């Protein structure tokens, strides 16, 4: 009874309209995830149509187009985070959606590869919709629902990433590679309009001179090492995902001995983790609200590490799909748990900067993961990528256990 009263008193500080903002931010994040994944798989094929490139040139240009967004994102995100804490996260979502609408649409008009790379770099510099939408909801959501909302926000991008490639494949097959960019640009414009008029943020602007430096905020935290560990974990989790992505289709092709519908099976294998995450996210979110995000995070890392062991030794594409589906169930606990820890352990006035720094680590992890997957598979073998990725998750789990131990002992 006392707990219910405390929860009720806590939720009185939050306006009843936070649900509409949540649905708007979720849909906006879904559109952003779908738009990104709708266009990315076809970048290399689109580039190939713009000139007579050798295989080496095509790989280099495709890699540059892929990495450009993450490189600029890693550099600029902390600057946007600082502005978000002074001006509000809704404004940052509008900025990201508006600029992405323009840049993605213009990619569809590109006449050479350098236009694509330049626009992708610009897109990364102004990106951050999902990150800022998550930070906005962290400030608008009652603490008793933080785990559930953070899990739901994580599923938005995942669901978009599942739908995007299918929709992009249908559109590009029927109308050409430029059409998905035009449609994505239009969807991001609708996202901009929806965010502008439907989302509400109860934010009090902070003058620059009154805003605490991030270093001071870290000094005032009970355990700043936890926040640093969350940044590191974000990088490792994203890296573990991206290390597999570039080689999935090639690995499936080798497992099937180039027999059968390789593209279809590779698509299924690539999609299974997202499906697992969608299925588990709601349950994980409610569990997180009950037992705490740090317990969920430790468990998720341990399960993910264990699942990479059979993936390293599998000899069947369908068994690989099965183990990756289970990995998706474990992944449902990782990013939402990280974001919930950041939400609960960091003062609201620093949400924008903290979540933007976290986004920089996401971008670094994406670049690192792609490089790890490409280099290791080239020098050794495809299974070795799974082995190395599992090892990084094991190291990460040990780090988390060491960092969280002092905190648990105090409580």
Automatic annotation (TrEMBL):
- Signal sequence span is none
A molecular function annotated in GO for this UniProt entry is:
transmembrane transporter activity
Give the record's keywords alphabetically.
Cell membrane, Membrane, Transmembrane, Transmembrane helix, Transport
* Record membrane topology: Multi-pass membrane protein
> The Major facilitator superfamily (MFS) profile domain covers which part of the protein?
21-408
Which locations, inside or outside the cell, does it occupy?
Answer: Cell membrane
TM ranges? 21-47, 59-80, 92-110, 148-167, 179-200, 221-242, 262-283, 295-313, 360-380, 386-404
Q: Where is this protein chiefly located?
A: membrane
One GO cellular component from the entry? Answer: plasma membrane
- Which Pfam families does the record match to this protein? MFS_1
- What protein name does the entry list? MFS family major facilitator transporter
The organism named in the record is Limosilactobacillus antri DSM 16041
């Amino acid at each position: 009874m006392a707990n219910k009263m405390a929860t009720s008193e806590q939720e009185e500080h939050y306006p009843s309209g936070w649900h509409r903002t949540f649905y708007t931010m979720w849909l906006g994040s879904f559109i952003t995830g779908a738009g990104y994944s709708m266009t990315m798989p076809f970048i290399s094929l689109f580039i190939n149509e713009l000139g007579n490139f050798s295989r080496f040139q095509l790989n280099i240009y495709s890699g540059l187009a892929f990495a450009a967004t993450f490189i600029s994102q890693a550099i600029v995100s902390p600057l946007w985070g600082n502005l978000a804490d002074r001006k509000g996260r809704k404004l940052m979502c509008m900025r990201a959606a508006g600029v992405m609408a323009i840049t993605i649409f213009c990619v569809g008009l590109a006449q050479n590869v350098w236009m694509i790379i330049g626009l992708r770099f610009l897109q990364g510099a102004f990106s951050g919709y999902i990150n800022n939408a998550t930070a906005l909801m962290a400030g608008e959501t009652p603490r008793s629902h933080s785990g559930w909302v953070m899990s739901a926000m994580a599923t938005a991008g995942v669901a978009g990433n599942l739908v995007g490639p299918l929709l992009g494949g249908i559109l590009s097959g029927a109308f050409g590679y430029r059409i998905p960019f035009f449609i994505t640009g239009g969807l991001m414009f609708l996202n901009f309009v929806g965010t502008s008029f439907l989302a509400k943020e109860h934010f009090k602007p902070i003058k620059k001179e009154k805003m605490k430096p991030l270093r001071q905020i870290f000094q005032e935290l009970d355990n700043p090492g936890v926040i640093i560990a969350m940044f590191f974990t974000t990088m490792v989790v994203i890296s573990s995902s991206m290390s597999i992505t570039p080689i999935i289709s090639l690995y499936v092709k080798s497992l099937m001995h180039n027999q059968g519908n390789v593209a279809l099976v590779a698509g299924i294998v690539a999609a299974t983790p997202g499906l697992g995450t969608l299925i588990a996210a709601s349950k994980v979110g409610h569990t997180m609200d009950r037992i705490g995000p740090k317990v969920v995070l430790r468990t998720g890392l341990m399960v993910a590490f264990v699942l990479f062991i059979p993936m390293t030794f599998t000899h069947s594409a369908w068994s690989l799909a099965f183990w990756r589906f289970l990995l998706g169930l474990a992944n449902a606990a990782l990013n939402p748990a990280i974001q919930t820890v950041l939400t609960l352990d960091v003062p609201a006035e620093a949400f924008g900067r903290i979540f933007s720094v976290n986004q920089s680590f996401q971008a670094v992890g994406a670049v690192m993961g792609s490089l790890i997957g490409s280099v290791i598979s080239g020098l050794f073998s495809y299974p070795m990528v799974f082995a190395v990725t599992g090892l990084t998750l094991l190291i990460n789990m040990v780090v988390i256990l060491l960092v969280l131990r002092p905190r648990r002992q105090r409580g």
